[in-house]
Design brief:
Layout: E1 7-14, H1 21-32, E2 38-45, H2 52-62, E3 66-71, H3 77-87, E4 92-95, H4 106-115, E5 121-129, H5 134-150, E6 159-166, H6 167-174, H7 183-190, E7 194-201, H8 213-227, H9 230-258, H10 269-301, E8 308-311
Parallel strand pairs: 1-2, 1-4, 2-3, 5-7
Antiparallel strand pairs: 3-8, 4-6, 5-6
Helix pairs in contact: 9-10
């Protein structure tokens, strides 16, 4: 049970959102005007290069519940969420993007489910992604299923960052020392009870998505490498298979040399195919190892996850 008077921190990461930020603020205020709980709005300016920060400062002048964390440069969406959680003062927090694809109207429903004790994490589960291209829908669906196959922790399917988190979960999350955080995987890893709230994801109200193909690929790789060592195990298995295949191929070549009944096909084509295949496989293994080593390198440097230039 939770007390009648409590505060929820609304964390809104922003990167070049000047076209939509005022609409987002107005929509949030409209929703929050009808709830029976208090809220603080934490806008995290992730190094925006447009007029986003100035617009946020203007909103702060209109509403004292607005807090602004402004990064010195663009550190990424996951870092922006981490900063918001670090500075959240509420009994719970809700993470929601500035593009209004996740409906703010569901925030009160999340709070109701949390207050009823249904779970310490209420995560939004997308049943549909309206007006998103087919490629993005298919790759997103495949990614969530692939990472669950490979991951040591079961991650909820079709779930983004839109969720409510209890204060106890926030405190546990803030104790995690790692820098390359994959937040969608860390909350399940913490082990607190989580329940889904299904919804249809709307298209952006304005502007364009800031998740380019490069950023989505980086996020997917970070999620996979952070929560699974199975790529290494798979590499070992394929390596063993390759060795067995090479031994069998060498045995066949040896028999063909001594036996007149077995004739080896002359030519360089088959030899080149084998060389290219195994060379490519070795490069792949080195790439996987390099990715893990790169993540270790980032962690041991001990650099901060983000740098805040200004707090308003």
């Amino acid at each position: 049970m939770h007390s009648d008077i409590f505060t929820v921190s609304i964390i809104i990461p922003c990167f070049n959102e000047e076209e939509v930020i005022s609409s987002t603020f107005n929509k949030l205020r409209e929703v929050l005007s009808s709830v029976d709980w208090e809220a603080e709005l934490i806008f995290v300016n992730d190094g925006s290069r447009d007029n986003t920060l100035n617009l946020l400062k203007k909103l702060r002048g209109e509403d004292t519940t607005v807090r602004i964390l402004s990064f010195a440069r663009n550190f990424g969406h996951q870092s922006a969420v981490s900063a918001g959680l670090k500075h959240a003062k509420g009994d719970a927090a809700i993470i929601i993007d500035a593009d209004l694809q996740d409906p703010p109207e569901l925030m009160n429903r999340m709070v109701e489910m949390w207050r009823a004790g249904q779970g310490k994490i209420i995560h939004g589960k997308r049943t549909a992604r309206l007006r998103e291209n087919l490629f993005k829908k298919i790759t997103a669906k495949l990614f969530y299923r692939l990472i669950n196959i490979l991951s040591d922790v079961s991650l909820p399917l079709d779930t983004g960052d839109f969720r409510l988190i209890d204060r106890q979960v926030i405190d546990s999350f803030n104790q995690l020392p790692e820098h390359n955080k994959y937040i969608r995987g860390l909350f399940p890893w913490l082990g607190y009870k989580a329940v889904p709230l299904e919804y249809k994801r709307d298209p952006r109200t304005a502007g364009v998505t800031k998740y380019t193909m490069k950023k989505m690929t980086k996020l997917a790789a970070n999620g996979l490498l952070s929560f699974s060592k199975k790529p290494l195990s798979i590499s070992i298995s394929i390596g063993m298979f390759s060795i067995i295949f090479a031994i069998l191929f060498a045995s066949y070549a040896l028999l063909s040399y001594f036996s007149p009944k077995i004739t080896a096909i002359p030519g360089w084509t088959s030899t080149l195919i084998v060389i290219i295949f195994f060379s490519g496989f070795q490069i792949l293994i080195l790439g996987i190892l390099g990715s893990y080593i790169g993540m270790i390198f980032d962690e041991v440097k001990g650099r901060p996850e983000y740098v805040i230039e200004e707090i308003i």
